[in-house]
Amino acid sequence: TFSGCISLTTIEIPDNIKSIGSWAFSETGISDIDLNQVETLSEGVLSYCKNLTSIKMDNVTSIGQGGFIGCDSLKEIVFPPKLKEIGSDILWNLPSLEKVTVTGAETVFDGGMADDCKNLKTVEIQAGKVKGWFDNLDTLKVGPGVCEVDNLNGSIKHVVVEGDSQLKLLSNAFSGIEDLESAKI
Length: 185
What we know:
The protein is mainly β. It has strands at residues 19-20, 32-34, 40-41, 54-56, 62-63, 76-79, 85-86, 99-102, 108-110, 122-161, 168-169, 182-184. Helix content is 0%, strand content 38%. The protein is globular. The mean pLDDT is 94.
């Protein structure tokens, strides 16, 4: 829709828009966007928005592949409670990304979704499931709403698990994380 409009810095989305198509706002000059009324974000929807620092998306249930690739200024992202589907490489190679928070009970967060995020220090999973490879992560926080931790790999220094009776730590949950210095369960 507006892909490649590099001088475009402001977009207002009407309340009746529930879905945004592939690459709709990619390579624009947007620095913040309110997508709270939107439910579906298609492939690459905000990719290569170099100035993007803030995304509001409280009602999003699905984000397509590569949704935020190339958003070099994005420091933090909060995945909303209703999120069920996340495409691959959604946060790939975001040099400024420091923190990811997952709040959805049906969200499965795979560490590989945030590959090559050199400054990612904290991933906080408040609900849903977590698995996969994490690169140079300082702290993984698993909150009481998380239902499953499965086969984490890579480089994680600290793990904090505050799960309740619903939490399943599967047999290889933390097996083989060579950089793990502390675990608080």
